[in-house]
User: Fold this.
Amino acid sequence: MKAKSPKESKIQKIEHVLPGYTNTLGTVFGGKVMEWVDIAGAVCALRHARRPVVTASIDRVDFHAPARVGHLMILDAHINYTGRTSMEIQVQVTAEDPLTGDQFLTTEAFLTFVAIDQNCKPVEVPPLLLETEEEKQRFAEGKKRKEERVQSRTNKHT
Assistant:
């Protein structure tokens, strides 16, 4: 299977924070942000695998700052790591005040997706073609997170 550059699957998605997406404080619900993160991650994984994908895990979600009604949410998703059938996708969410252009980081998340066939069985994904030092570092960090997830599951079953 031919290796693919992370650049080939990188995506950017923009959402507008509407009143129905917010709590009584006027800030966007964390669950709504998580929904957008999952969709952005899935699209990135789908573009890499060129097969249907399912969310296998959400490793962590860090909320750094709240976004408010009227803000634009800019979701950047890129692939960090590939295993045999799985892919780690990192999603960073930046809020933008469309009236001033001011931007700030609101959320970061790491998700794992698995490519599947028509019978919902895992299938191999293309390896990553790592061209830059940053891509190599992200791959190494993603591999470490995968090993920690596997170890955590092993510890729960013993």
User: Anything to note?
Assistant: The chain has a mean pLDDT of 96. The chain has one domain: 6-156. The helical segments are 30-49, 133-156. Residues 6-156 form a domain with the Thiol Ester Dehydrase; Chain A fold (CATH 3.10.129.10).
